[in-house]
Design a protein that fits this description.
This protein is mainly α and 177 residues long. It folds into two domains: 8-102, Orthogonal Bundle (Rna Polymerase Sigma Factor, Chain: A), CATH 1.10.1740.10; 107-176, Orthogonal Bundle (Arc Repressor Mutant, subunit A), CATH 1.10.10.10. The protein contains eight helices and no strands. It has helices at 8-16, 20-41, 45-61, 72-104, 107-124, 128-139, 144-151, 155-176. The longest helix has 33 residues, at 72-104. It is elongated, with a radius of gyration of 28 Å. The relative contact order is 0.07.
C-alpha cells in the first residue's frame, strides 16, 4: 500500500514505474477537487462525475507527458477543463444537428414519426404475450407456426394473441386519431 504521506512527485514516480497503488493514491488525493470543479462548470452532476472519471483515465494514460516539476493537480485540472469544453462543444453540435434535421423534415415525415410513436405507445398497452405475438407475426412477418415455436406456446393460443392484439391496436390507434 502506498502511503498518503508521500508527495505528489513521489507518487507520480511510483505510478510511472507501473504502480497502480501510486496512481490510486493520486486519484484519492485529487478526485474531490476535480469533481467539485467539474460540478461547478457542468450543468449535470452525473455528467460531471463521469467527466471526472474520464479525466483520471486520460491522466493515467498520458502520465508520461506530465513534465517533471509540474504540479499534478494543475495538470489534472487542465485535463478536466479540456474534457468539459469538449463535452460542451459536442452537446452544442448535437443540438444543432438535431435541430437542422428536424427543420428538413416535411410534414409527411413528421406524420410518419407521430404514427410510429403512437404505434409504440399502443404496443405498450398490449399484454406481453400479445405484444410478442403481434411483433413477430405482424411486425416481422413471421408465420404463425414459427412464432408459436419461438414463443413456446400452442399455435391456437398464438393466433388468438395476434387477433386480439391486432383488434386492440386498431381500437387504440383509432381513439388516438
Amino acid at each position: 500500500m502506498v502511503q498518503s504521506s508521500l508527495s505528489d512527485h513521489d507518487l507520480i514516480v511510483k505510478a510511472r514505474s507501473g504502480s497502480d497503488a501510486g496512481f490510486a493514491a493520486l486519484v484519492d488525493r485529487h478526485q474531490q477537487a476535480v469533481r467539485n470543479f467539474l460540478r461547478k462548470i457542468v450543468p449535470n452532476s452525473h455528467e460531471a462525475d463521469d467527466l471526472a472519471q474520464e479525466t483520471f483515465l486520460a491522466a493515467w494514460s498520458s502520465l508520461s507527458k506530465l513534465e517533471d516539476g509540474a504540479k499534478f493537480q494543475t495538470w489534472v485540472m487542465g485535463i478536466a477543463w479540456r474534457k468539459a469544453k469538449m463535452t460542451a462543444r459536442s452537446a452544442v453540435r448535437t443540438r444543432e444537428r438535431d435541430h437542422a434535421w428536424s427543420e428538413t423534415q416535411d410534414g409527411s415525415q413528421k406524420g410518419v414519426n407521430e404514427l410510429a410513436l403512437a404505434l409504440k405507445q399502443a404496443l405498450e398497452q398490449l399484454s406481453p404475450d400479445q405484444r410478442a405475438a403481434v411483433a413477430l407475426c405482424l411486425g416481422e412477418g413471421w408465420s404463425h407456426g414459427d412464432a408459436a415455436k419461438a414463443l413456446e406456446i400452442p399455435l391456437g393460443t398464438l393466433k388468438s394473441h395476434v387477433n386480439r392484439g391486432r383488434a386492440k391496436l386498431m381500437e387504440i390507434l383509432e381513439d388516438a386519431r
